[in-house]
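Exercise 4. Each item below gives a protein and its sequence. For each, produce the structure-token representation.

Item: CENP-V/GFA domain-containing protein (Psychromonas marina).
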Amino acid sequence: MVTGSCLCGNVKYEISGEIGDIVHCHCQTCRKAHGSAFSSVAGVNDSDFKLLGDVQLGCYESSPGKNRYFCSNCATQIYAKKDNSKHIVLRLGSLDDDPKSKEINHIWVSQKASWYSLNSNLPEHLEFEKYS
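Answer:
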């Protein structure tokens, strides 16, 4: 069982099955919805995804037939769903556990943020460090 939640804790969910391969989407819609350079997502079968408790998600149709679902209180993106599909597109930033999935690619790099480099080789820090 893999669990996830929103920033404020009002939305909690569990996944009983496999989480698909991880894709990093750089499309303009994902960037704006997440306020980030890209969105990391993976597919989950509808039957394997369960919201816990009595929660109402906000919903926004970001493109025809595609709805994005988010916490109505803190606005954490939880998943997207296309009409007539049998899976959700899980927003991996809301996971509390390791999805045990692997990254497979970056998509929509034609729309990636101009200020982001896919292979930046920037230093990595375990936590925030002040810069002088």
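Check: The radius of gyration is 16 Å.
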